[in-house]
Design goal:
The chain is of the alpha+beta class. 55% of the residues lie in helices and 9% in strands. The protein is built from 27 helices and eleven strands. The protein has helices at residues 9-18, 30-36, 52-63, 100-105, 130-136, 146-149, 153-164, 170-179, 188-200, 204-213, 217-220, 240-259, 270-279, 283-292, 300-310, 315-318, 332-335, 337-346, 351-362, 366-372, 379-389, 392-408, 414-433, 435-438, 447-454, 460-475, 481-497; strands at 25-28, 44-48, 66-71, 76-83, 86-94, 115-117, 124-125, 138-139, 167-168, 320-321, 327-328. It is globular, with a radius of gyration of 27 Å. The termini are far apart.
Amino acid sequence: MQPLDWGYPELFHELETLAKPGQGIFLVGGAIRNVLLNLPVHDLDFAIQGNAIQLARSLADNLGGIFFILDREHDTARTLFDRKSERFSVDFAGLRAPSLEEDLALRDFTINAIAWDMHHPETLIDPLGGARDLKDKLLRACSPSSLLDDPLRILRAVRLAVHLGMKIEKETVLLIRAAVPGLSKVSAERIRDELFLILAGEHASMGIRILDRLDALGFVLPELQDLKGVTQTAPHVLDTWEHTLATVDWLEKLHAVLAGDYKEDSASDIILGLTVLQLGRYREQLRAHFSEGIHAERSLLALVKFSALYHDIDKPGTRSEDLDGRIHFYGHEASGSEPTRLRARSLALSSAEVERACVIVENHMRIHHLARRGDQPSRRSIYRFFKAAGPAGVDIILLTLADTIATYGVTLEPDHWSRKLTVCLQLLDAWWKTPEVAVRPNQLLNGNEIMHELNLPPGKLVGMLLNALEEAQATGTVTNREEAWKYVTDRLEEIRLK
């Protein structure tokens, strides 16, 4: 196995040049695992005999990378490089034990405890049988203390099992269960990062189910447990727990056919086929929307899946039943915003991510209401939807469609689905095709003009007039400055008479 196999020949050549005589440099972890599985390699991890921080600093200096120390006490550092318009990281860590084999035994799972000696590239170093476990699709802890040493590895086990299609070994399951209480002492940032990696990949709902079966969900997303067994009446075919997980499943499928790399057979299902037929024209815009995101280290799709997990979070608290047995959840979307906010904050999400999740949850019923009316949504309805949701409106469109399929299941009629798609198409048209008409009209008057001409001080009243004028423009009531002045003057008189 030669350095070229890893796809970074210049980096390996530079490391050979920088290495001191006899200094061991071992590639370890996910890069080797991915190569053995024929998966892409994005980041590299090296275990170093000697000064790892100094080697990382020299590599960054010589190749024009960014260097920073992760943990001086444990001799760990990271270098960042730009390659083919993509940024990748290279981590360096000093050996944590006297020998490489002992260092590998301190790692999490055997499939991540395989090493490659840069000075002897012809063989792999695999003392724990990780390559065999990869072949057998078995996730096995490196040692009896692996999970207790770092309970965050519980979430990593779930992620690896789901994303690589592996089975967690029975003994490792027992070790995980014993380590679960330790999650309460793991930092919110570390839990967030692993959780969002689970959500970013395929089969996120399976990851949530496994966390639940391992008794770990209560330490990560405890509110979800309250959804279990909360029954719903027609058209719902599932309870709130199963409905929530089904919504996440369908969200993934819809994103794949609308914003992913389209494959004809991926839309063979009639529901997905109709979706592509109606909304596929916005594939590039949807792809750009989800790739831009709102945080550099976490995907927007993962955040929308998080929001989907919480979209019905207060149904248990708002459940009511009529005399005829029909079940209702009046206002659950509004009251669900607060527990969503609290959980998002507890996971140390950025303020922008917290607000985005809350907006999605609070407004996830709007399109359902628009579609129930039967008529085409008015310009006022479209304007008010995006006024409330902003860019999250695009996220809500996908969530609404996923929510609909999860609600009806096999009872979903194509005609009903087509009506829902028509409303979503009109919203996407407004957002991307004619935003200056029904989403954010060009401003005819500004606040300074209104204050000067109408002798008003700065304050809420001016904001109210501007908002009212913008809506009047969006609905077509006002089309020029003359009409705008008349509208604002009349509106001010109405407000003063109240």
